Amino acid sequence: MKRIYRSALILLSTSIIAGCGIVGKSDVDETVGWSAPQLYNAARESVRGSEWKSARTYLAAVESRYPYTSYAQQSLIDQAYVNWKDEEPAQATAAINRFLAIYPNHPGTDYMLYLKGMVTFTPPSAFLTSYTGQDPSERDPKGLRQSYDAFKELVERYPNSRYASDAQQRLTWLVSTIADNEANVAEYYYLRQGYVAAINRSQRVLREFSGVQAAERALFIMMKSYEQLGLQDQASDAKRVLDANFPDSKYYTQGLGKQSGSWWSWMSPSTWLN
């Protein structure tokens, strides 16, 4: 019995030692002693193969081991790209913000602003409209506003950048979509008798966005909200502006409101951008 017990202990000890050997081998950092070019070239190879995890590891090593070098600068740019491609927006944005803070006058700043806009940009997707039926303007606008801010800064600071033209086109879509979202929120409040909140949201559309189609709905909501509050002078003012800019507005005949089960049945005001 003692012999069996002793044999079992020996077997167990051997297994533990073997296991430790395996762990030890797997934990060995093969990049110890590598130069910045070696690390960066390995990262580029991983990027070419869409091996985002290994690329991220190599790039992080470049930044930590060779700080403030040209390789560290480029590694941050590539980390932002890799995290964006790997659908890690928080990490991508963190890399971009770190780069912009450390290297504010770097020649690649325009690209980083463009990439920052792309990280949270939500284009009109055929998948969304055909599969879910959800319009982009009916979702949380926080990401859209972040994209807007980044693209706007890019266009204003670097009007001759190779990315400026594309950023401007995206800005045009973003302005219209964010304005539609504000009108959606105004309509939500109006249909729930939150007339003051509806007026405030409608005014935001008119104040912050110029020449958008959403202004028609915002003006109609303002007019009807003032009427509900018994403020006839303000209602008349809103109607005058509505008629001047949108003669024969469709809202006079179709009114507001959608069928149950549409966007406001599941949207929560707590998720909206204040």
Give the termini separation: 75 Å
Topology, number of strands: 0
What is the percentage of strand-forming residues? under 5%
- Main sheet record: none
- Which structural class is indicated by helix and strand composition? mainly alpha
What is the average of the pLDDT values? 82
Number of helical stretches of at least 4 residues: 13
Q: Estimate percent helicity.
A: over 70%
Write the layout of secondary structure elements.
Layout lengths: L1 H25 L9 H13 L3 H14 L4 H16 L3 H14 L6 H12 L5 H7 L9 H16 L6 H28 L3 H14 L5 H15 L3 H14 L5 H4 L20
Helix pairs in contact: 2-3, 2-4, 3-4, 4-5, 4-6, 5-6, 6-8, 8-9, 9-10, 9-11, 10-11, 11-12
Question: What do you see in this structure?
Answer:
By secondary structure, the chain is mostly helical. Helix content is 70%, strand content 0%. It is built from 13 helices and no strands. Helix 2 runs parallel beside helix 4 and helix 11 (214-228) packs antiparallel against helix 12. The chain is elongated, with a radius of gyration of 28 Å. The relative contact order is 0.06. The model is unreliable at 7-25, 124-134 and 259-274 (pLDDT under 50).
Question: Can I get a quick summary?
Answer:
With 274 residues, this protein is mainly alpha-helical. Helices cover 70% and strands 0% of the residues. The radius of gyration is 28 Å and the shape is elongated.
